[in-house]
Structures are given as structure tokens and as C-alpha cells.
């Protein structure tokens, strides 16, 4: 793709292959929120907005009305980062333990932008996140053990709203550690939650924070992440001591069924 400018980089397919592989591994560990909502692709980099079929009346008089069709705008997320010359040389020579911290740092910052769009939204772009939606209910859990009762209560609340399962629980790694080290009747809270939700239904995401957990239904069609250009890596320019690369994606997010998510406030 021309926008990525990869052909102008001062290295070949071998280095690009390693960059793509390493960044892909890091991104898969950080972009976990897109796995708990509907991932809608089929768009492209040239897509500027998503059709919502919503109307906004701008004029009405004598039985004649004029309305605008309100689209959901795509946002473009871009993170530039420097790849040092010594790292490029290590990759060319096949060094297996080269310093990959530059990839980790860029991934963390880039992924936080996407994750926070899903959680908090981007007000300036007209995108509302799950936790920012006023219709999303919340429950308090004053201790790790109370997460069990909060999850059970949340399932009951979902049932009252005719929200089907399964359900996933999004928490930070620090909260997950507490689940493993706190016990209830001799069984870890983590094991108890697996009994309730099913194995593999707890999702780790650092951007949720240590003071919040999120229960979210997997019935579908409640939260949609729209992907135009999925996360791609491009070449910006040469530097004296390396090159400048960038991560790029275009995307949007929409809350359609706020009743399908419940925030758990941790204290």
C-alpha cells in the first residue's frame, strides 16, 4: 500500500518480515479489547465514515423537513517511532536476542489509543466508549472476593435485560494476580470465576486500570469496532542513526446495546 511507503526503506524483506512478526506478537497481547466486541471489517483505508442510518433534523416548516444523515467518522491512529541502526543490523545478522524494547514501547502507546477509544471513547470524534456511556450500569466490589458476588449479580442483571451469554470479564494483570492469590473455601477466586464464566473467559487488558473490571456479553451486535485499514507498519524517513517507522490504522467504535455491559468498580 502506497501510504505505508515500505519500498523506500533502506532495508529489504528480511528486516520487514522480522519487524512484522515481532510487532504482531506484541500487538496481539495488547489489542485484547477488540476481541470482546464485534470486529467489523470489509472497509478500507479510503473509508471516511460508517453509515449509521440515523437522521438529524436541521429544518422543519409547514410539513417540509430537511435532515442530515449522521455518519460515524473513522479516526486515523498513527504512532511514529525510531528504529535504531544497531537494531536493524542485529536483525540483518540474525541476532536472536536483539533489543526489541522499541517495538514494545511503540506497541503499548499505540494499543492504549485503540483500547481507550473502546473504553472511554473519543469525544472530539463523536465516538462514545463503553465506560463513558451513561446507560452502562455499574456494581461495587470492595474486595477481591466480592468480585465473585459482583459477577453473579451482573449475570442476574443481564438476564433481567434479556441479554444472553456467554460473558467475558475484562481486568488488569494486577487484578488477575489478586484472583490467583485470594481464596474462597480453599479455592482461588480465579478458579471460582472459571466455574461461573467458563475457562478462558477472563481477558487481560492494562488500559482498563486496576480499579475497574468490565463484564460484557458475547451475544453480539451490541458493541461494534469498525476496521478500515487494520494495524499496519510503514516507513516514514531515514535518520542519521536509524529510521523512523510508524504504526497506522483507521477505525471507529459504536455502542449499540449499553445494557450488554456492566462495569465493576473495584476498591
What does this structure look like?
By secondary structure, this protein is α+β, with helices and mostly antiparallel strands. Helices cover 30% and strands 36% of the residues. The chain is built from six helices and 16 strands. It has helices at residues 13-30, 85-93, 101-119, 146-160, 173-181, 189-197; strands spanning 38-40, 49-61, 64-73, 75-84, 121-122, 127-128, 137-141, 167-171, 183-184, 187-188, 202-204, 212-217, 223-227, 232-239, 242-255, 261-266. The strands form five sheets. Strands 1, 4, 13, 14 and 15 form a five-stranded mixed sheet that branches. A five-stranded mixed sheet has the order 7-16-12-8-11. β9 and β10 form a beta hairpin. The model has no long low-confidence stretch (mean pLDDT 97).
Task: Briefly characterize the structure.
The chain is an alpha+beta fold and 267 residues long. Helix content is 30%, strand content 36%.
The proportion of residues in beta strands is 35-45%
Largest β sheet strand count, sense and barrel closure: 5 strands, mixed
Mean residue pLDDT: 97
Query: Architecture, according to CATH?
Result: 2-Layer Sandwich
Query: How would the global form be characterised?
Result: flat
Terminus-to-terminus distance: 47 Å
- Output the radius of gyration: 22 Å
Query: Which parts are unreliable, with pLDDT below 50 for 5 consecutive residues or more?
Result: none
CATH class: Alpha Beta
| H/I helix tally | 6
Number of strands: 16
- H/E series, N to C? HEEEEHHEEEHEHEEHEEEEEE
CATH topology: Major capsid protein gp5 fold
Q: What is the SS-derived class?
A: alpha+beta
Amino acid at each position: 500500500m502506497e501510504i505505508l511507503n515500505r519500498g523506500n526503506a533502506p532495508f529489504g524483506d528480511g528486516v520487514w518480515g522480522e519487524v512484522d512478526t515481532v510487532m504482531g506478537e506484541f500487538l496481539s497481547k495488547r489489542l485484547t479489547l477488540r476481541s470482546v466486541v464485534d470486529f467489523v471489517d470489509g472497509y478500507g483505508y479510503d473509508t471516511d465514515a460508517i453509515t449509521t442510518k440515523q437522521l438529524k433534523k436541521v429544518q422543519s416548516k409547514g410539513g417540509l423537513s430537511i435532515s442530515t444523515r449522521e455518519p460515524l467518522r473513522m479516526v486515523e491512529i498513527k504512532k511514529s517511532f525510531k528504529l535504531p541502526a544497531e537494531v536493524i543490523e542485529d536483525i540483518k545478522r540474525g541476532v536472536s536476542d536483539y533489543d526489541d524494547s522499541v517495538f514494545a514501547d511503540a506497541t503499548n502507546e499505540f494499543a492504549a489509543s485503540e483500547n481507550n477509544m473502546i473504553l472511554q471513547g473519543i469525544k472530539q470524534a463523536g465516538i462514545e466508549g463503553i465506560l463513558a456511556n451513561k446507560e452502562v450500569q455499574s456494581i461495587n466490589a470492595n474486595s477481591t472476593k466480592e468480585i465473585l458476588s459482583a459477577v453473579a449479580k451482573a449475570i442476574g442483571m443481564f438476564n433481567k435485560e434479556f441479554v444472553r451469554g456467554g460473558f467475558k470479564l475484562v481486568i488488569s494483570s494486577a487484578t488477575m494476580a489478586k484472583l490467583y492469590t485470594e481464596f474462597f473455601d480453599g479455592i482461588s477466586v480465579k478458579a471460582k470465576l472459571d466455574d461461573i464464566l467458563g475457562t478462558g473467559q477472563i481477558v487481560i487488558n492494562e488500559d482498563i486500570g486496576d480499579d475497574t473490571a468490565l463484564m460484557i456479553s458475547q451475544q453480539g451486535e451490541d458493541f461494534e469496532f469498525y476496521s478500515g485499514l487494520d494495524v499496519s507498519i510503514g516507513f516514514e524517513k531515514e535518520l542519521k542513526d536509524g529510521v523512523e517507522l510508524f504504526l497506522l490504522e483507521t477505525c471507529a467504535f459504536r455502542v449499540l446495546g449499553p445494557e450488554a455491559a456492566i462495569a465493576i468498580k473495584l476498591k
